[in-house]
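seq as requested:
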Amino acid sequence: EVDDDGAVDPETVIPMIDGGTEGFKGQARVIIPRFTSCFECSLDTFPPQRTYPLCTIAEKPRLPEHCISYAHVIEWPKHFPDKPMDTDSTDDMRWVYERAKARADAFGISGVTYMKTSGVVKNIIPAIASTNAIIAGVCVNEAFKLATLCSQTLDTYFMYMGADGVYTHTFRYDKKDDCPVCSSTVRTVAVHPRSTLKALLRLLKEGDLRLKAPSITKSDQTLYMQKPEALERATRPNLDKPLVEVVGETPDDETLTVTDPIFPGDVALSIKLAFDDSKPELTGDEPDPNEDR
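struct tokens:
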């Protein structure tokens, strides 16, 4: 909460401690809302989820993962169109393993095992007990310091790497000036003036913000609202309108407010459009460049 002058009331701040591991690597952090960087500030450092191109899976498998994905993504729906796969069922996983093993043998690929099949299908991240214990200890230590004020808390990030010996590193992760969660900065988005509102919403979902289901309004009008259903239907025609028609020829005069389920509480994102004729004119219906042709 903030006071009448806009300053944060320290008594209403609830610190957060975050920790995670992957194999012999681990991290922990302390987040003090409005004072330190938040979780959203570091999303750009997360590696993208690993996926395999469908054309490679179907036509030219080179890895055991390709064969497993083929059995999981293509063969299972073909043989069991009305039955969702139960990844906790040994029978279902055994079927996928046997199909993947047969395909791997046909292409001369080794390495398909039941354990690997389970890991690929379930997207399992390997866990090492010693790494989990170290990161858990760091998190508990930070919780103790916050509860007792016995020492300075972590500022703000701790890394552990145990694959080749033992190495740790601490550093301050700075706040992003344009973070939609912990910053009040108005972001500027450059777009072609004839691009549509649908294209803008797609840009917000596929760009660095990674929004899930954005709704957008301006000072005197709701441009598009995901829910409720009646309001979505009423604002749907705006999606195909060019942005120059939606916000006018001088976008600097209008600040757009974007809400999304990923934002906590009543947090919203403020953006201004910058019309740039050198940008591609988009409708929002363009094929995803990451999808296979």
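The helical segments are 54-59, 64-79, 90-106, 114-122, 129-148, 197-206, 229-235, 243-247.
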